[in-house]
């Protein structure tokens, strides 16, 4: 064996000894880190499975409550919603609270429903859910409360940057109409109608509101509605629905047959539509 080979074998042996020494020194840390990673992954997967399983169960309970409502079994639905609010997972308890408030309103317990919506608005960190609760509560207060009650809930939601601004403006307009503040009601209805994001069905509803104000003489100036002339369209639809069908002119009598003596004279002018 050459001297070079001997030195190489000795060097490899020394390296092997150093590696074994390093492994004995750091092996507990390496093994501990590996075990820690495995435990973290296992806990995360278990937590995900637990929440997914609970969310699926909560979803089933919520839809069971919906089915009970559709079937007319309101007490059973309320019991299921209460259980879901207390023990549900994820966002399902919040959805159950909204549905329970709507169920209270359906049963005629408007004060309780408004209180439930107010509680949701006060406890929500999600801005959009808070605004939704305010609009729903404010809408109920149109008939059950005063203009101040509606304004205190939907006034802040009627801002331009809110996705629910048009629902808030409609509720405000109706409350103002009820309170006799017709100019403010007109302004809110026109703001909804002129919003480019307003759906056609909502725009037409604003047109009916404005047509009602005009027909009552509550406003004197024509509504300033730019989008599709919603107010004029609404008035035309109302008139066309109430007007009698146009009379078909009678066929000319043959020349050799004299007209009947007692035939009434044909009318040449249409009677005005009584509004």
Automatic annotation (TrEMBL):
| Matches recorded under InterPro entries | SecYEG/CpoB_TPR (IPR018704)
Q: Where is this region: Disordered?
A: 235-275
* Residues passing through the membrane, by range: 26-50
Where in this chain does the record put each Ancillary SecYEG translocon subunit/Cell division coordinator CpoB TPR domain? 21-134
One Pfam family named in its UniProt record: TPR_21
Q: Where is the composition biased (Low complexity)?
A: 246-275
Q: Which UniProt keywords apply?
A: Membrane, Transmembrane, Transmembrane helix
* Name the record gives this protein: Tetratricopeptide repeat protein
């Amino acid at each position: 064996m050459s001297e070079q080979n001997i030195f190489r074998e000795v060097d490899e042996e020394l390296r092997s000894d150093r590696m074994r020494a390093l492994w004995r020194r750091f092996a507990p840390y390496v093994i501990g880190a590996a075990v820690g990673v495995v435990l973290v992954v296992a806990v995360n997967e278990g937590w995900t499975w637990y929440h997914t399983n609970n969310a699926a169960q909560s979803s089933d309970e919520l839809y069971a409550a919906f089915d009970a409502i559709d079937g007319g079994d309101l007490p059973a639905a309320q019991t299921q919603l209460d259980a879901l609010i207390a023990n549900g997972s994820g966002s399902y308890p919040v959805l159950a609270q909204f549905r329970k408030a709507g169920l209270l309103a359906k049963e005629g317990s408007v004060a309780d429903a408004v209180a439930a919506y107010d509680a949701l608005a006060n406890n929500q960190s999600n801005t959009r859910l808070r605004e939704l609760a305010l609009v729903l509560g404010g809408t109920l207060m149109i008939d059950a409360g005063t203009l101040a009650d509606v304004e205190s809930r939907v006034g802040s939601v009627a801002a331009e940057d809110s996705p629910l601004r048009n629902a808030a403006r409609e509720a405000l307009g109706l409350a103002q109409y009820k309170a006799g503040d017709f100019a403010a009601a007109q302004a809110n209805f026109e703001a909804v109608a002129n919003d480019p994001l307003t759906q056609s069905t909502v725009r037409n509803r604003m047109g009916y509101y404005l047509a009602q104000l005009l027909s009552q003489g509550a406003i004197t100036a024509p509504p300033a509605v730019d989008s599709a002339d919603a107010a004029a369209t609404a008035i035309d639809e109302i008139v066309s629905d109430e007007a009698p069908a146009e009379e078909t002119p009678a066929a000319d009598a043959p020349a050799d047959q004299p007209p009947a003596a007692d035939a009434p004279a044909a009318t040449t002018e249409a009677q005005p539509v009584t509004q």
